[in-house]
Amino acid sequence: MKRYLLLLGFPILLHLAVSPAAAANAFQRYEKVIWINQHKQVGAAYENGKKLFEFPVITGDDETTTNPGIYPVKLKDADYYSKKYDTAMPYSLFFDLKEMKAIHGGEVPPPAERVNWATHGCVHVEDPYIERLFDWAEVGKTVVVIQGWRDED
Fold first, then answer.
1. Closest by alpha carbon to 99, among 132, 126, 64, 130?
2. Does 152 map to a domain?
């Protein structure tokens, strides 16, 4: 099974901003992986190395970055409200508690409009995908892999 996961993930690993060994380890250590490709502004949910579904995202830009890396989901909150930004963050899957960065419900504009949009470092996902991710992800058992940096859309 591990060999299958490595072969499946190898093309993806070539484009990773984090080390290939670390990314391979994410697929080996965790049954559930949420992969965020910032260059393409797309995410995907994987279980046991198999892609379950793909979804559009919007991430931070060079001023308010969504830093590449591998982050376990640390907290789930269906009704989180950010006092700092005075905004609702429904279905939050927190991957960085220090900066309070999460994958959460939020508007994702069409590709032609994305160049004018950015988050404050979180990852926005629209319905119905965010609800599905929220229900599927498990604290400590799901990992978020954020690949690359966002460039001009």
1. 64
2. no
